[in-house]
Amino acid sequence: MRVFREVARDTLAIARWFSGGQLKPQELRTAIFHDSSHVLILSRIRQAAERSHVPFVSGVARRLQTALFGIEIAGKVKLGEGVFFMHTVGIVLGGDSQVGDRVMFLGGNTLGAVDHRGYPRIGNDVVIGAGARILGPVTIGDGASIGANAVVLCDVPAGATAVGVPAVVRAAGPQRASPPWAE
Description:
alpha/beta
């Protein structure tokens, strides 16, 4: 039953992305049929199969994710509630990366290691721009933004923005309020 609760929470969080916080039936329908929801459903099934020690299910679900949606999520990756993949193709989440709640991936992203020293930890309500790479044992704070095609090799504080290759962290302004979908 846990997997059904997780899927329901994910779907509602994704619907809030589309509606800007006001949950409406049309946004819920859009969320149910969005690739991001399907990827999360397969991820939750994989996690449930691993918790229950059910053989083969995790591997089959992982291959389905890759074949159908072009996304590669390693077995030890921890995904928070309502993670949103705007475009799933080309996203790679490696090793034991941790992704917080309501993180938005805009497509073609990589969370990976440098010399196997560790994997990224992403906070809540983070937006990761298209083509961005976050590499190594770095921490991205809550509410941070990663610019398109940035290569992040250092920690990014809460509310800050990282842009460029290699990424330069722009000072965080006043702590921004939680987005409407976070409430």
